[in-house]
Amino acid sequence: MKKWIIIGAALTLVLALLGSGYLLLSRLGGTGAEGDESLNEASVDVGGAPVEVELGTVSSLLVLDATVQPEPGKALKANKGGTVTHLWLDNGDTVENGAPIVNVAVPAEPAAGEDEEGAAAGPATTEITLYAPTAGTIKGMGDLQVGDVLEPGAKVASVAPDEFRAVATVPANDLYRLYDDPDDIMLKIDKGPPATACEFIGLGAAEEGAAPVEEEFDPFAGESEGGGGGGAGAELSCRVPSDLRVFDGVQGKLSVSTGEAEDVVVVPVTAVRGTAEEGQVIVVDESGSEEPREVSLGLSDGQLVEVTEGLSVGESILDPVPLDPRFDVPGDGDEDEELEDEFWMGG
Q1: pTM greater than 0.70
Q2: Of 182, 162, 156, 10, whose CA–CA distance to 84 is shortest?
């Protein structure tokens, strides 16, 4: 009896292995597998089809999440340090450009030609006045009092106009689209007033908690201070119109026009290896021969890209362009793992 039980178990195991083998063969497209035709079609390397190069218009827009912030204003600094002797104004006061804010006593410098005895006989300190660097509201003075000692270069306060700016982080890769200052910017506040024009202020390195720097910024500066460092991108800012009612911290979106080109040579972005400054296309001649060609690129709207050099209207190129063989690695491990998971789940 035990003998027949063992023989039956062995037969069951053999049949199970044969069934699994058939399933594996079916998954891999072997003989007798259902869906052979569709699997073989999927494995065929379908190349691009020739498309004719034409003239067209490219209008490039970049839509970014934005936050409204108060204008950072200008810093009032005690460049020579010293001791506070008088406070003309306080936090929250409104001042005109050039108005006195703080008096500071600093060590007196000997006059030219005076010896040490003459210098000692003169005043020990000189009182200087720190004036408002711009018109606006005084902020950041804290609890500054008469008698406080300031280090050289210490920031006493800041003076900011009663204005707001919208600030948006530009992803590092999208900096390629900002060749020049944006032509125009529209600001749309979430659940707020209708979209309105927003005057471009500047583009600066993105630093957490810091306002954009109002100075020239080169997005392609590499490792320089203006390079956006660490792949953080950059911060684009624009001035919110004074008649637009906003609040500190409200959210919105910026629609940034990075340029428009009319009646220029354009091709689908899928027909180019590369999308900024330089790229490569596969040109197809009348005989069907294919030739790689380097091209110079201009504006892109995400579907079409301007070709500034390297192609003429009427030429044909492959679309989509074949993958660069240096990056098309066969036998990707992820695909193998997916196939293996599918087999075991199906088994």
Answers
A1: no
A2: 156
